[in-house]
Structure formats: structure tokens, C-alpha cells
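Section 3.1: Structural characterization of target chains.
Under the original work plan, the team committed to producing a structural model for every single-chain target entering the pipeline before any wet-lab resources were allocated. The record below documents one such target. The sequence was received from the expression subgroup and is listed exactly as submitted; it comprises 67 residues.
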Amino acid sequence: MLIKKSITIKNHRTSLSLEKEFWDALKIITKEQKCSLETLIAKIDSNRKTSLASSVRVYLLKFYMRN
């Protein structure tokens, strides 16, 4: 089931729908990196080539494959 959250990226309000497991993984990374969810999503957004949701999922896959 998708969970939709509203976030602000570069002073622009947007929404992002992800499965609970992806939101949980993002929360873990923000704690490890001592940054906000919006900061992490903005980082992912700045490098994306596809939709934001797809880019977040790929980022998480690559992050956990490295660790």
C-alpha cells in the first residue's frame, strides 16, 4: 500500500507516494546521515532522471547494495 506524504523541495511543495518500507528506509538513512527527510529527498531530486518516486526507490536500492 502506498503512503503519500507532502514535502518541500527547494521551496516547492510536492507529494511523494511510496510504500511503507521505503519510508522506513529513508527514515533510517536520515538518522544515520543526521539530515532531514526533505534534505535527503532534495539530494535525490537534484540527480534524478525519472520520476521522483522511482528515483527514491533506485537511490535506496543502491544505498543498501553498497552497505
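The first strand starts at residue 2 and ends at 9.
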